[in-house]
Amino acid sequence: MDSFIQHLSELYRYRGLIKNLVARDLKARYKNSVLGFAWCLINPLMMMVVFTLVFGVLMRNNIPNFPVFLLIGLLPWNLTAGSVMGSMNSIIGNGHLIKKVYFPREILPISMVCSNLVNFLLACVVLAAMLLVFRVELSPLMLYFPVILLIHVIFLLGLALLFSSLNVFFRDTEVIMEVVVLAWFFMTPVFYNIEDLTSTFSRLMYILNPMASIISTYRLVLLYHSPPAAEFLLRTLATSVAVLLIGYWFFLRQAPAFGEEV
Amino acid sequence: MVRFEGVSKKFILRHERSRSFQDAFVNIWNRRNRSREEFWALRDISFEVPEAGSLGIIGENGSGKSTALKLITRIMGPTKGKVQVQGKVAALLELGAGFHPDLTGRENIFLNGSILGMNGREMTNRFHDIVEFAELEAFIDTPIKHYSSGMYARLGFAVAFSVEPDILVMDEVLAVGDEAFQRKCLDKIREIKDSGKTIILVSHSLQMVKDLCAEAVWMNAGVMRARGPSVEVVDQYLDWANRKNKLRLEGAHAKEPEVSEEDNRRWGTREVEITRVEFLGGDEKPNTVFATGDTLVARLYYRARQRVEKPVFGVAIHRIDNVHINGPNTKTSDFDIEWVEGEGVVDYTIPILPLLEGTYRFSAAVYDYSCVHPYDHHDRMYTFTVQPKTMKERYGFVHIPCQWRLEPRVAAHAAISPLPDKLPVQF
After folding, report:
1. Phi then psi for B325, rounded to 5 degrees?
2. Residues in A touching B2 (Cβ below 8 Å)
3. Across the interface, do B20 and A16 touch by the CB < 8 Å criterion?
């Protein structure tokens, strides 16, 4: 426990590094493109258009405000997929750093989640615009949004820590996860409504897939103006915190060997 | 403060690393007959570098020097034993680790600073000094992928120095950059050392270890062979390395030479040999007793078995109690020798001997042009004495030409004389 607190205080001392790594990531990503940061806004819009064409026009459905419905599912999903797949490589990809300089290693997956979070927040500007365009009424329940996001991010940090260290020792984690993430995408109500599934299925999905609960709840507060179920908040929060603790514990156990393995 | 207590580090060499699930599963069944080769990079190493101390770690490639540094910098943990480090460590293991090619110099300074554990405010305060030290004012907003390797290294150095560490750890990094910048870095390292910081240096440049470090550790195959004042440890190591080399040339490579105290005073590979050293007076007659102010010529007789390009001849004078007085060589004196072959002599002349009364030890050596590889080194093998004769000065050990002047306070009403009564006397 003591060493755990020590780790956290060291992590706090290095917070500047997280900020700089996120900045490096974002700057490097957009530096060589003509449109630069505008891509953060254009990209979700274009994805929305493609998905709406496929799942709203080619395959008809009767969900009202489908583009907004879709966007509310798509943006959190992109945050999840980007964080999980990005952090997978965060340790190995920075092997040159790990072998040359000491710093708390967890900074690498954490900053990967953070830079995806920044992208997500920028894309939320598009989401806000779409809410206005589709004349979705604003409601005070939207203030639940940051709470849900917090739970979401706790969950992602846990996954990022877990998979980034696992991938150091078993390099096929990444290959496997590519398929798993694809399956996960279809098992998550991004482009469909979870209520449309049979009740056993949706029940099972809620229990096994925290992302299903998280995305449904985003929709609940942003689109359907109803408060999140207390059950959701407690259960998903508990799951997320558990994932974070397990992930961090696993990561700290493996981290001393990174210098030899990367 | 850095302390190693019985530190060992084991690496497991798997020829085919099990990095996939499949291998891991297979290995569950094969665990017993799986061949795992263990390799001990360090075995039971103990030493301590006190605050403001300086330690050089020397040894052949693969002797465990770099592993020791990685333990100090916490890049790895020890398998056994304890590594204690008190104070902020800055490591110059690789310059500019973490530079991103697409970002500008300015952005990289902040990024690299934070990797080394600095916060944004500290970096802002030091930004100007860093840019100035790196001499990159004109290019600071250029992406560093357009930098030359020298500019890259300069920026790396500048950032690493700005961390103001309590412990500066360096691994063979000074080999980059032009000579002027190397000198600047060395000055900076000395400055850091003089300000009471701890310095730990791994280097193949034994001269640098002697210059910068008070103490040295000689590692061989993961074991500490010697520890003590850097001058002595370096000499021991050189002697051992040269004897090993000689044995190898003779084909007896099975046995490694033992360290012995005797015949420690001569080493080298002998492509050029110093066959004799002779002292001559101003009258060209052999002599070993001189007076302060005399002319002293040291004549080095050499023999080169083959043509040797660009050798550097050097000498050194120590007082009898091993105080190092000087150590010039033909390279530092800009007296470049193109090549030598066969026999000949090299004269080292001191026109006016400044040494005061005493007995002095004289060394002669011939090295390759990098001054790293010794052909033949005679360490303090020759002796000459200096007698006072007409010289009355007797404190210290050199006479430095000087002038004295006396100016009594002139009374306010007295006329100021244009010339002092007594002109300065030249000694």
Report:
1. -95, -50
2. none
3. no
Interface of A with B in 72-101 (CB under 8 A): 96-101
Q: Which domain holds residue A144?
A: 14-261
Chain B residues with CB-CB distance to A98 below 8 A = 75
Above 80 in pLDDT, residue B398? yes
Structure tokens at B1: 């403060």
Neighbours of A245 (CB within 10 A): 14
Kindly report the pTM of this predicted structure. 0.68
Residue B91 and residue A102: Cβ atoms within 8 Å? yes
pLDDT per residue over B308-336, tens digit each? 999 999 999 998 877 889 999 999 999 99
Q: What is the pLDDT of residues B154-208, one digit of tens each?
A: 888 888 888 888 888 888 766 666 778 888 888 888 888 888 889 998 887 788 8
CA-CA distance, B16 to B25, in Å (whole number)? Answer: 15
Angle A57-A59-A63 (CA atoms, 0-180°, nearest 5)?
A: 75
- CB atoms < 10 A from the CB of A56, how many? 18
Domains of chain B: 2-16+38-225 (3.40.50.300), 266-387 (2.70.50.60)
Residue A251 is assigned to a structural domain of this protein:
yes
Q: Do B115 and A260 touch (CB under 8 A)?
A: no
| Structural contact between residues A107 and A7, judged by C-beta atoms closer than 8 angstroms | no
A26-59 pLDDT, tens digit per residue, is 887 777 777 777 888 888 889 889 988 888 888 8
Mean pLDDT over B31-50 rounds to 76
Query: What share of chain A has pLDDT > 90, as a percent?
Result: 40
A170·B24 Cβ contact <8 A: yes
- Note whether A31 contacts B: Cβ–Cβ < 8 A: yes
d(CA B210, CA B205): 9
| DSSP assigned state of B411 | P
Which chain B positions have a beta carbon within 8 Å of A27's beta carbon? 102-103, 107
DSSP B307: E
Q: Do B107 and A24 touch (CB under 8 A)?
A: yes
> What is the count of structural domains for chain A?
1
Q: Distance (Å, rounded) from C-alpha A262 to C-alpha A42?
A: 36
| CB-CB contact of A144 with A221 (8 Å) | yes
Where is average pLDDT lowest: B50-54, B267-271, B352-356?
B267-271
Residue A7 lies in a domain: no
pLDDT, tens only, A62-73: 788 888 999 999
CB-based contact, B94 to chain A, within 8 Å: yes
| Position A5 in a domain | no
pLDDT at B25 over 90: no
Residue at A9 is within a domain:
no
Strand partners, B274: B302
**Chain B partners within 8 Å of A99 (Cβ):** 75
